[in-house]
Design a protein that fits this description.
Layout: H1 2-30, H2 39-70, E1 79-84, H3 93-101, E2 110-114, H4 117-125, E3 130-134
Antiparallel strand pairs: 1-2, 1-3
Helix pairs in contact: 3-4
Length: 135
């Protein structure tokens, strides 16, 4: 009977090992990288790129003068004077990031920032920590 028990135990161990190997194989197969898209897509992209080149050139030519006109002298750029009047310690990480983004490092420090939508967004988020004046 002892021999039968040993044989039964060996069968159980083999089955367990087979199940373990099957699950590993399934995991590896599911983690395999997906194949790339067919080559037809690449041919279509190159055709689109060739047809889009003249349009891009026209856009670039028309955009160049607009950029030159948009550039303002430094004296005409509106600036804001921002002072940190409340501590950044114990605040949310996103609020600390806004303080750093505005260039403020310590309390009662005043910096001049350009009045842009990005800077206005940071100022609005942490308005309770700042005093803002037109510079």
């Amino acid at each position: 009977m002892a021999d039968e028990e040993i044989v039964d135990e060996k069968k159980v161990v083999k089955k367990a090992a087979a199940r373990k190997a099957a699950t590993k194989k399934a995991a590896v197969e599911s983690a395999a990288p997906k194949k790339a898209a067919p080559k037809k897509a690449a041919v279509e992209e190159s055709a689109v790129e060739e047809s889009a080149e003249p349009a891009k050139a026209a856009v670039v030519k028309s955009a160049a003068p607009a950029k030159a006109a948009a550039a303002k002298p430094s004296s005409a750029v509106k600036r804001l004077s921002v002072t940190l009047v409340r501590s950044k310690h114990g605040r949310l990480a996103s609020h600390k990031a806004c303080v750093a983004g505005l260039g403020l490092r310590r309390m009662h420090q005043t910096v001049q920032v350009i009045d842009t939508p990005e800077n206005r967004g940071m100022i609005n988020r942490i308005h309770y920590m700042l005093t803002v004046e037109d510079a």
